[in-house]
Amino acid sequence: MSELSKCFYQVTAGRSCRDLCHPEYATCWQSFVGITKTLLPGSYKLYLSLLVIPPLVKGGGYTVEYWRNHILGYVSLSFKTYVQAISGLTLQCLLYKLFGKLHYYCLMGVPGFVSAALVPWLPRVHLRLQGVTYFNMMLEVMIRKSKLRYLQKLRTSKLWATVCFMLFSAKIMHVLRAETVNQFWIMYPATGKEDKMGNTPQKRKIAPCLHDASCRSYVLDGIWKYALVGFTIEAARGVLSKGSLVYGEPSRFLQELRQSIGFELPLFLATYVGSFRGLSCWLAHHTGRERLGHARLAGLLSGVCYLIYPKYQIFTLGFTKFLEMSWEHHLNTVKEKSSWLKLLQRIPYLRLVHMISIGYMYHALVFHSHLSPPFNSKCVNYCSDFRVERIKRRLVSWMLEHSWSIVGQ
Ligand SMILES: [Zn+2]
Ligand SMILES: [Zn+2]
């Protein structure tokens, strides 16, 4: 597929945005009206898992307010993504009109970047969700694409990736325990809140750990709850992806659902959390008192569980969280902020990351599709009603025609 980038201008010479993007519509305006009418359900379908999975794994606190915010959040995010999809696809036509020819970067990359910039104001939580998801996918493609030797080693070596994940985990658990950052991670350490609330030293002497209940139930509770969360995520994902079979072939549905549910994710979550909690308790008892450094050591060692579920998604999640949390920790703990730090602080990183990574991933979907993760094509194809897939296929068929014509000469 990378061949496509080499002969893009030869194969698209003399072709218009209509030939490539919307042969089913005579004009760009008709195309705009057509997509405006048809793309809405795709965005709602894309975020269905975001509607279903969080309440399933939440495990309590289902107030009316929670449901209202949750459903409104889903409706709003889906609608804004729909607007983003329309603007991205329409920009392809506008950029063609502007330059008078199809341009390599203006086909997917620039429209993706600009449409992400144009999307109506996204709440920070959704901007973060989209931005971090796309940034993680961008990292995945960059690692796969890179010719750097050490990166290739990292890509193929589970050992290296595990060591890196262990280091990310150590730093993340350390800053979460120190309570200098307040961000999402797979698990959270018991913090010293009881201390701040004035627990007496005697109580800590009896129970050196900071968690409630006994150490045994603390560890077992983590293992059980996280295994259940992993299993729920896998089951919900399976039902959402195979759900359409219920109507057509119910017998195949159960069989395929069973096959699609993996046990690696629940096992990874349960062992990661269980080993972290177990080690923290052991260290606290062994040294007689819970210390800040224990979270770092337990985080480091429990990171070895990455071997059970060595996925890019987990690795890149660890990496981005490591960067984000280290940065926030630094900002919150530095004694005096230098002028360059103040300047850096003013840069809207999340917004920039969101725009750049969406542009990059749109481009990668068409021009480096063998490197693009399946989730990327799912996102774009759901939201564009498979128009981008058709664009890609047209380009490939033009390329084949072009190479045949060269062979024939
Ligand atoms: Zn057009
Ligand atoms: Zn304990």
Category by helix and strand content: mainly alpha
What is the string of helix and strand elements?
A: HHHHHHHHHHHHHHHHHHHHHHHH
Distance between the termini: 23 Å
Q: In terms of quaternary structure, what is this?
A: single chain
Strand portion, in percent? under 5%
- Taken from the alpha-carbon principal axes, the silhouette is globular
How many structural domains does the protein architecture include? 2
User: What is the averaged pLDDT score?
Assistant: 88
Bound molecules: zinc ion
- Biggest sheet, open or closed, and with what strands and sense? none
Task: Tell me the total number of β-strands.
Answer: 0
Helical stretch tally: 24
Rg on CA atoms, Å: 25 Å
Helix content: over 70%
Provide the low-confidence segments as ranges.
Answer: 194-206
Features:
2 domains; globular; binds zinc ion
Topology:
Layout lengths: L1 H5 L1 H5 L4 H4 L7 H11 L1 H7 L1 H11 L5 H36 L4 H4 L1 H10 L5 H22 L3 H8 L1 H21 L14 H4 L4 H6 L8 H28 L2 H4 L1 H11 L3 H24 L4 H11 L9 H22 L5 H8 L2 H19 L6 H11 L2 H22 L1
Helix pairs in contact: 4-7, 5-7, 5-23, 6-15, 7-9, 9-22, 10-20, 10-22, 11-12, 12-19, 12-20, 15-17, 15-18, 18-19
Bound molecules: zinc ion (2 copies).
The site of one zinc ion has 7 residues, from helix 3 and helix 4.
